[in-house]
Amino acid sequence: MDGNMKASATLVLADHRPEIVPHAQRLMAAHDGIILEEPADEHFKTMLDGSLSVEDYLEDQDMEYPEFSRHMAHVLRERHRAGTRMAQIEPFIEVLLAIHERFANGGGPQDLPADTDLHRVYQAERRATAALLDFYHSAVSDRFEAVVNTVKSFARADARRLALRDRMRARAIVKLLSTGKTYIEAGSIHYPLWRELRKRLPDGYPLHVHFLMADVARKLGCRRHLFGPGDVLTLYYRFHPKNFFPTEDLLAARALIYNKLILKDEISTDEDAYPHTRDAIAVGSVAARLSLDDCRRLYPKVRHASTTASRKIVNLYLGRPWPLTMKT
């Protein structure tokens, strides 16, 4: 990166949902470059220039959010035609894919050189995956307190994994920043990426943080962040990795209920409906009002229930209409 102070960057935080695309599109148009939160793909440039259709480009990809990916691909094509610089930067995932390829070809953990990104990524992923499997096993039948402990263990392991992922991405991003305004795409849980970028940027370099759906949330009457309790717990561990705090158990317990209530499936809808943002506000408002004892009583009832059934159970428990009545 050169020292030209005309350059600036905006870290744009949002979850990958179809309803964010029009907002991302407008903000991208105000930037000269875009750094995407995805590993480099050899067919990306041919998709952008139209030589490869969006459908064919996405066909072989393991997409968690296909509607979002499809809409965003068309937006990126538009920005490419307008001359916007573009790069796919997600080194942690690229290294993880390289590890999978090594293992598929007969290699093993013992073949990963110590003190390398290969080894660091493997260890971070292994610990987080093991903690997640412990949670899944515990969630089937363990007592509430034991499940809460596995939530905390996973959040700590995930926080360490995210820390490594953000450090690796920040190093790669800073090398690309030059003149002009750069849009940096990131999921909301990567909010601490701003700190990793700031550490590596020259003093005085303009770095802005923009929560893409914050204005929408305010218009919908929400005056707080849209992070669920599990994300708040993970972020606390990211910023305070060696500390414990009084509300750990409460956040972990609320996360158990929140995750049973929140909509999981992707909803593609018109721009002004915002089903996922509305849902996050509604479910977050309920979770924020639950005490540890509330969660202890509710969890056995919702443990094996569907999202729809869990909402009915929580509404019945609360004994009054609550904003969990939207169709699922």
Can you give me a brief rundown of this structure?
With 328 residues, the protein is an alpha/beta fold. It has 14 helices and 5 strands. The chain has helices at residues 21-28, 44-48, 54-59, 66-81, 91-104, 117-141, 144-176, 193-200, 214-219, 229-239, 248-261, 275-287, 292-302, 307-318, and strands at residues 8-13, 33-36, 85-88, 181-186, 207-211.
Taken as a percent bin, the fraction of beta residues is: 5-15%
Global outline: globular
Supply the number of structural domains: 2
* Cα separation of the termini: 47 Å
Rounded to the nearest angstrom, the radius of gyration is 21 Å
Describe the main β-sheet briefly: 5 strands, parallel
Oligomer: single chain
Order of helices and strands: EHEHHHEHHHEHEHHHHHH
Number of strands: 5
Number of helices: 14
Enumerate the strands of the largest sheet in spatial order, edge to edge or round the barrel: 3-2-4-1-5
Structural account:
It is a single chain. The chain has 328 residues and is of the alpha/beta class. The chain has two domains: 8-93 and 163-219, no CATH class; 242-328, no CATH class. The chain contains 14 helices and five strands. The chain has a five-stranded parallel sheet with strand order 3-2-4-1-5, with helices on both faces. Helix 5 (91-104) crosses helix 6 (117-141) and helix 10 packs antiparallel against helix 11 (248-261). The longest helix has 33 residues, at 144-176. The termini are far apart.
